[in-house]
Amino acid sequence: MSSALPTDVLDVGTLHGPARVHLTVPARAVAALLLGHGAGGGVDAPDLRAASEAAARLGLAVGLVEQPYRVAGRRAPAPARHLDAAWTAVADHLRSGPLAGLALVVGGRSSGARVACRTAAATGAVAVLCLAFPVRPPGRPDAPDRLGELDAVGVPTLVVQGERDAFGVPPGAPGRDVVVVAGDHGLKKDLAAVAAAVAQWLPRVVGPR
């Protein structure tokens, strides 16, 4: 994470092995943002970095979470129930420790966004940030969509989606803003637009510094 503040790397035990958190906490943090990676990617994804840096500039603590399967060196994702359990364990650990007392925004890119949506209530999140939410597998128009995961989120939600995302673009809904930017599922084409969308939305859900 590009920041003048030091980033701590914490290993957090879960029932499915250790997760790893890259955590930056400024003095007098206004809130916290916890982000997860995509199924086959890591926390260095450009859109995750852009969102993290936008949040850091607003005075939020930022945690980038590596799921246990990635910490163990595997690329194939774990089952959804394992991902959700590990994510919730990390959030609980941080909320009782370095992020105690801070309002928590959760999110991630692609698979990480789905995890954040499914566990929003369990983590006590005040809002959810979805980068490249995967609505439906590419080339499978008859496959069930995942919009139910978005619709079930009971707190304000921002979805930042590439206009040419092969996984589709979710519709807006009450409590859910959808910002469409140039590019595809990787959200690499216009990182400034990704950062701007996050920077404009975060103060609405956590308040200004």
TrEMBL record:
Gene3D superfamilies associated with the record: alpha/beta hydrolase (3.40.50.1820)
Pfam families for the chain: Abhydrolase_11 (PF20408)
Sequence ranges assigned to domain KANL3/Tex30 alpha/beta hydrolase-like in this UniProt record: 31-169
Name the UniProt record assigns to this protein: KANL3/Tex30 alpha/beta hydrolase-like domain-containing protein
Species in which this protein is naturally found: Georgenia muralis
